[in-house]
Design goal:
Radius of gyration: 21 Å
Strand order of the largest sheet: 3-6-5-4
């Protein structure tokens, strides 16, 4: 019966013929989402991205009514506390127009923060100004022509946000196929988001010094590279281990454990280096620190 009553869901919006690649889009998004905070290394609190795409995600983010159905609200309390109550929508990134895209992204992130500030002030007044505002950084970013990004303080948090976003895509798609998706009211969503028992579900352990930083270690498959990757991992960084020996890089990644990817790379080959850095950007959203360790001495 559901299949019989199902109608086509999202009409597609026109998109540029050639899109900016994910590896070039992600660092722009990640940079714009950084928070100015003097207590963090280099004066910015950085976030990690997790990219998702596929036919269902693309149908959703490419829909001409994206600005309506994506902004209605969330489906569960966990969605609210982990992804905020609405995602950030960007324009499709056109290849050859990177600077214009960068400007548009910064403007969109600033507008998102202003909207969140207004939402907080409006609803905090009902609580006698007793609530402490959370950061105004979006946790889900929708990019027509590409897909979506989960945003988090760690790669784990970014993956959770991306998982929830994909679940939301599926749920809203099914709802819109037979009717219209509806959510709780803004008042109810705020009371959920700022309810202490919901906030207690989030890990509030003190952040490690390099949390949110993405580190590349070349020659990470042996010797100093292994120890260096492990040291950055212990301090909370997301680590990419680059080595010409894929099995060695994977071994280091297993040793370091959390938030580590292994990437095959020959640092004497320009194309190999570019491909490796693109892979890191696609996995984490960008790069902050490079340890140029690969090499030999006689």
């Amino acid at each position: 019966r559901l299949r019989k009553g199902r109608r086509p869901v999202f009409a597609a919006t026109p998109l540029p013929a050639r899109k900016l690649p994910v590896a070039e889009t992600a660092p722009v998004v990640r940079g714009a989402c950084s928070l100015r905070d003097e207590s963090w290394m280099d004066g910015y609190r950085r976030f990690v991205l997790d990219f998702r795409t596929g036919s269902e995600v693309r149908a959703y983010v490419d829909g001409e009514e994206l600005g309506r159905y994506s902004q209605i609200g969330t489906a569960t309390p966990d969605h609210t506390i982990r992804t905020k109550n609405w995602p950030l929508i960007l324009s499709a990134p056109e290849d050859g127009a990177a600077e214009a895209f960068k400007t548009a992204v910064k403007r969109a992130v600033d507008a998102f923060a202003d909207r969140y500030d207004d939402y907080f002030e409006r609803n905090n007044a009902r609580h006698g100004q007793r609530k402490k505002k959370l950061d105004p950084v979006p946790r889900v970013v929708l990019v027509p022509g590409l897909g979506l990004f989960g945003v988090g303080g760690t790669s784990k948090d970014a993956k959770i946000a991306a998982d929830i976003a994909e679940s939301t895509v599926e749920m809203v798609t099914d709802a819109e196929a037979i009717g219209r998706f509806e959510s709780a009211s803004e008042t109810e969503l705020f009371d959920i988001e700022y309810w202490s028992l919901e906030q207690a579900k989030l890990d509030r352990m003190p952040q490690k010094p390099l949390a949110g930083q993405v580190v590349v270690v070349t020659g990470g498959g042996s010797g100093i590279g292994v120890v260096t990757a492990a040291a950055f991992g212990r301090e909370g960084a997301e680590v990419a281990v680059l080595d010409i020996d894929e099995s060695a890089a994977r071994a280091t990644a297993r040793t370091v454990g959390r938030s580590v990817i292994a990437v095959t790379c020959d640092v004497t080959d320009r194309d190999s280096v570019r491909a490796a850095f693109d892979t890191v950007c696609e996995n984490f959203g960008g790069i902050d620190i490079v340890v140029s360790n690969a090499g030999a001495a006689w």
